């Protein structure tokens, strides 16, 4: 997955190589989040479909579904934090770094990583039950993740311009509450999904 | 002929709304002018759609608690009529926007949110069509439906209020109640909401009945063969 992110970043770098001066901060920001989004979908889609059937039954006997979804969310959050962290460092390294407020940008990355991980974990659970799970994963997750992505891009834009933190309070609170809603819903709904 | 009264009420209310909506007195506001009559159709359709989708979510919850396939039938058909209303709401909205904002699809957060909302529910229908087994499909679709509604509400009602939007009630524009909503408008607006909701329920009821009849016929067919 790390290789996936790095090579995507490199492809973007080479494609923008012709006209470096056209890479405005807004394009920079949007491109980064699109790379992270696709990396997230690809990374987390595996979290259920990769498991063999026998192992799922083993988990089923071993512990409660709540424990499984929470542990999957935590694991995927760490994967996403790691991926987007490395991705950001490499991206800033090759594409230049116009970020005004690094601290806020890192907070934004962390919130987005946790949010993406929790939404996509449940969607991956849903999609893995169907046959053509790869297509279904993309179709189900993109519209659902969009509000989160929009908030993240807005927050990242504030960080990029180095605005005062009080300006972005609204966005941080909204992102946190969306994260909270999503995690609670996954916790409540996953047992029903698990049974089938 | 049982429980027919609400269908009659629906027809009466909608006829009242159409006649009064097109010919009744309306306040004259700048920019909006006569197009304010669209309130009875566009705004009422959106409210009816939200009600339908909300009740769809309630039925999905009930399905998860009871595992009764009838609840899932109702939930899916409610979502379908909600989607239908959503598309109608977009069409009426874009007619209205064409006259007042000068563009059938202005770049407005609420419009984009609505488009994404429609995508979410189309994905729900796609998800339903990708399962063979009935109980399994019902359970997984219910989980997605509840999840989708929880994302849909902030998308339509909360996010646009945080940003600048052309719609009333967001970004410095006044909300609807403080709007020039005088008693002439209210006299038609509230019946319009109820009428559209009843029409949606009627649509849903018909489709649920067709579904049940088909299921019965299929069972008889498998018994006979």
TrEMBL record, chain B:
Pfam families attached to this UniProt entry: Cytochrom_C_asm (PF01578)
This protein's record includes keyword Repeat: no
Domain Cytochrome c assembly protein, residue spans: 10-162
GO biological process: cytochrome complex assembly
Transmembrane portions of the chain: 39-61, 82-99, 111-127, 139-159, 188-208
Major localisation: membrane
Gene Ontology molecular function, alphabetical: heme binding
Keyword annotations from UniProtKB, A to Z: Cytochrome c-type biogenesis, Membrane, Transmembrane, Transmembrane helix
Name the UniProt record assigns to this protein: ABC transporter permease
């Amino acid at each position: 997955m790390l290789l996936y992110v790095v090579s995507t970043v490199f492809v973007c770098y080479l494609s923008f190589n012709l006209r470096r001066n056209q890479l405005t901060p807004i394009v920079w920001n949007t491109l980064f989040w699109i790379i992270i989004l696709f990396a997230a979908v690809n990374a987390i889609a595996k979290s259920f479909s990769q498991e063999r059937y026998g192992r799922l039954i083993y988990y089923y006997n071993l512990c409660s579904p709540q424990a499984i979804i929470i542990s999957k969310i935590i694991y995927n959050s760490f994967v996403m934090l790691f991926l987007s962290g490395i991705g950001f460092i490499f991206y800033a390294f090759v594409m230049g770094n116009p970020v005004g407020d690094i601290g806020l940008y890192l907070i934004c990355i962390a919130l987005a990583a946790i949010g993406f991980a929790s939404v996509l974990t449940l969607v991956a659970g849903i999609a893995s039950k169907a046959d053509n799970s790869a297509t279904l994963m993309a179709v189900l997750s993109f519209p659902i993740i969009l509000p989160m992505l929009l908030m993240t891009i807005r927050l990242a834009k504030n960080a990029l311009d180095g605005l005062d933190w009080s300006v972005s309070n609204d966005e941080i609170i909204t992102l946190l509450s969306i994260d909270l809603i999503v995690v609670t819903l996954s916790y409540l709904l996953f047992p029903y999904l698990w049974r089938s | 002929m049982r429980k027919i009264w609400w269908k009659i009420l629906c027809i009466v209310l909608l006829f009242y709304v159409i006649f009064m909506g097109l010919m009744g007195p309306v306040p004259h506001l700048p920019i909006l002018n006569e197009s304010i009559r669209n309130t009875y159709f566009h705004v009422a359709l959106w409210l009816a759609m939200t009600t339908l989708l909300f009740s769809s979510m309630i039925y999905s919850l009930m399905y998860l608690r009871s595992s009764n396939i009838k609840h899932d039938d109702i939930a899916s058909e409610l979502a379908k009529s909600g989607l239908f209303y959503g598309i109608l709401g977009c069409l009426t909205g874009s007619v209205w926007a064409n006259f007042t904002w000068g563009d059938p699809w202005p770049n407005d957060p609420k419009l984009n949110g609505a488009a994404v909302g429609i995508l979410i529910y189309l994905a729900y229908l796609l998800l339903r069509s990708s399962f063979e087994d009935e109980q399994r499909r019902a359970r997984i679709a219910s989980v997605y439906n509840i999840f989708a509604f929880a994302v849909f509400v902030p998308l339509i009602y909360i996010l646009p209020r945080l940003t600048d939007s052309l719609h009333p009630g967001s970004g410095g524009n006044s909300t609807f109640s403080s709007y020039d909503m005088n008693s002439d408008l209210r006299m038609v607006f509230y019946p319009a909401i109820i009428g559209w909701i009843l029409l949606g329920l009627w649509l849903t009821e018909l489709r649920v009945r067709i579904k049940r009849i088909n299921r019965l016929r299929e069972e008889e067919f498998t018994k006979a063969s």
